[in-house]
Amino acid sequence: MSEHEHDLDCSGGCDSCGCGCDHDHEEGATVTLTMDNGDVVECAVLTIFPANDKEYIALLPLNEEGENDEGEVFLYRFSEENGNPMLENIEDDDEYEVAADAFDEFLDGQEYDEIVDAEEDDEEEEK
Questions:
Q1: Which strands sit side by side in the sheet containing 4-11, from one edge to the other?
Q2: Rounded to whole angstroms, how far apart are CA atoms 24 and 93?
Q3: Rg of the chain's alpha carbons, rounded to an integer?
């Protein structure tokens, strides 16, 4: 479960994050989170995805160089209020498992798409 506050500063591209919100963004959406201990963490938006009639957001925390060395991903419940993105901690273990499973399925689908795209590229090169 997440231990982070949900202070959110959304920047980047909704086209890339898939959140469907109506505010202007550029490619490479990022958000700035303020953690419970006061640390500020810049995160890349990986995706916004549905699970059990709710929406969730997957964030990849970045270091000062804009990289993620640990492979850790933060999951939050996602909503919009007056056009502003809102994050909520997922407090329930069962809800977190549902969100994590849905995110895993999203990742599996992305890997499948990459494999299919690579095979199609190889076939076109052979022609």
A1: 4-11, 30-35, 40-51, 54-61, 74-81, 84-88
A2: 34
A3: 16
The tokens for 32 are: 């700035």
Nearest to 77 by CA among 46, 93, 99: 99
* Residue recorded with tokens 């505010």: 23
Residue with token string 């992305």: 110
Q: pLDDT tens digits, residue range 65-124?
A: 888 878 889 999 999 998 888 899 999 999 999 999 999 999 888 876 666 666 666 666
Distance from C-alpha of 112 to C-alpha of 106, rounded to nearest angstrom: 10
Q: Six-digit token pair at 95?
A: 């809800």
pLDDT beyond 50 at 5: no
- Three-class SS of residue 118? helix
d(CA 10, CA 23): 9
